[in-house]
Structure formats: structure tokens, C-alpha cells
Design brief:
single chain, 267 residues, alpha/beta, 2 domains, 4-stranded antiparallel sheet, 8 helices, 12 strands
């Protein structure tokens, strides 16, 4: 008997989306493999956040289909989506003064089972996620008192404990200083390597995509213009087309990509 082929955490088939008669995304098709770490790279306004909202079922496509672990987002009940995908937005602002532990417990599938509070097993799962995120010893800190980087790590912790097959992150390091950016990057790399968490993150940072991802998808002009390993996808031609700058791409002795912008193209 021939075994069934594995189902990818995310499949997008010929997706189109328009807003106010303006085509934002056209003919988007891609597959995200289990255990991969993929960067969706593009300039501001390229449609990265819109694509994530389509994946989460927040908005509906004009045509095409999004599948999460083989299930159509359009026909999956909203309360079942958290078992298929977790999401970390650019910023998180809880209405109530929740602690890091409270925030993490909110990510548990189906919520806390007992009306009397979390069980011992639920607390253990939450504390393990907090440990993995590097926030050990901060579980009783109120979220609003954390630094920007610590808030992003706490949001990642909530997504981690959700234990979904796919984690989406929208510009996870956009507003962070270099120290907190490095901490978030290290955590994502560790989760992917050690826990095989499948990650798709959006970014406009070419260096971040080159450092962190094993695959880069470049989005510009409403479509995918490059897709592959960083060294292949991040060519001079692709960067110039996506970002509208004259660029020179080089690699140092450690294989680290360097992009030098030499000015914008004239209209």
C-alpha cells in the first residue's frame, strides 16, 4: 500500500485580491514545507500583511484558495483555525493588564480547560514555552511594563504554546533595536532548528532574510518575483526590481550577504 503524501502546513493556489478596484495581489501560488523557515520579503505596501490576513481568514480572496494543513481556510470554522496556524502581529496591546504567564496561557488550544484556572499540565506547558523564549523569571511581569523586544518575545511565546503546524510573523523585528532584534532572531532560529517549528515571517529587511531564512520569497508589484535559497533569490536584479534602488550584492569571507544601495532609479 502506497503511503499518503505529506500535507504541507500552507498551500496557496492562484490567489487574487483587490481593494477599492486596485489589484493588490495577483496569481499568488506557493507551498510552505513542514519544518522550513521562510522569509516573505518585500517593500512596504507590497502586500505582505494582506497575504497573511488572507491566510488567517480575516479577509476573503477575489479568487483562489488558501489551505492550512490541507484544509480550506474559507470552509474551516473560525474556532478551529488556531489549531492550524498561530500569528504574531507587528505589535500586541492587551486590553487587560496581563502577565507574561497569562499571555502565554491564552495561547493554549481551546483555552484553559478548567473553570478553576489552569491545570498543572497547562502551567508546565506555558512555563516551558517561556523558558524557550528566554523570558524565564519574568512570567509574573505585566506585559505593559516590558520593553519592546520583551513584548515581542512574549507574543512569540503565546504563539509557541499554541502548538499549531504553522507560525506566521508579521515584521517581527521592525521596531526593535539591534539587541532585541538579535534575541528575536536567535529565538526563531532555535525554534526552527530544535523544535522543527514551521515559520513564515514577513520582512522588508534584506539582511534579516539573508541571515535567518533557508528560503526567501520576494513579493513586489502584487506578485512573486523571486523564490529560492537566499543566495539565489536575493540577486541584484531582484532587489532593484523590488525596492527601486540601484544595488550591488556581494558576499564576505563568511558567506554573509551584503547589499549596497547606490541610489534610487529616476521616474
Amino acid at each position: 500500500m502506497v503511503g499518503m503524501a505529506p500535507v504541507n502546513p500552507l498551500s496557496i493556489n492562484n490567489l487574487d485580491f483587490s481593494y477599492n478596484a486596485r489589484k493588490l495581489l495577483g496569481g499568488i501560488s506557493l507551498e510552505i514545507d513542514a519544518g522550513s523557515l521562510t522569509a516573505l520579503l518585500g517593500p512596504n505596501g507590497a502586500g505582505k500583511t494582506t497575504l497573511f490576513r488572507l491566510c488567517l481568514g480575516d479577509i476573503k480572496p477575489e479568487s483562489g484558495e488558501v489551505l492550512l494543513s490541507g484544509r480550506s481556510v474559507a470552509s474551516t470554522p473560525v474556532h478551529q483555525l488556531p489549531s492550524l496556524v498561530s500569528f504574531v502581529p507587528q505589535s500586541t496591546a492587551p486590553v487587560f493588564p496581563l502577565t507574561v504567564l497569562d499571555m502565554t496561557l491564552l495561547g493554549l488550544k481551546g483555552g484553559i480547560k478548567s473553570f478553576g484556572g489552569p491545570s498543572g499540565e497547562e502551567l508546565e506547558r506555558a512555563r516551558e514555552a517561556i523558558r524557550l523564549s528566554g523570558l524565564e523569571g519574568m512570567e509574573h511581569r505585566v506585559f505593559g511594563t516590558l520593553s519592546g523586544g520583551e513584548k515581542q518575545l512574549a507574543a512569540l511565546t503565546r504563539a509557541l504554546v499554541q502548538d499549531a503546524p504553522l507560525m506566521l510573523l508579521d515584521e517581527p523585528t521592525a521596531a526593535l533595536d539591534i539587541g532585541h532584534e538579535t534575541r528575536v532572531e536567535e529565538m526563531l532560529g532555535r525554534l526552527n532548528r530544535e523544535k522543527q517549528v514551521t515559520i513564515l515571517l514577513s520582512t522588508h529587511s534584506i539582511p534579516l532574510a539573508a541571515r535567518l531564512a533557508d528560503r526567501v520569497i520576494v513579493l513586489a508589484g502584487g506578485g512573486i518575483i523571486a523564490d529560492g535559497p537566499p543566495n539565489d533569490a536575493l540577486s541584484t536584479e531582484t532587489i532593484e526590481q523590488a525596492f527601486g534602488v540601484r544595488a550591488r550584492v556581494s558576499y564576505d569571507e563568511h558567506g554573509q550577504l551584503n547589499v549596497h544601495a547606490a541610489g534610487v532609479f529616476d521616474d
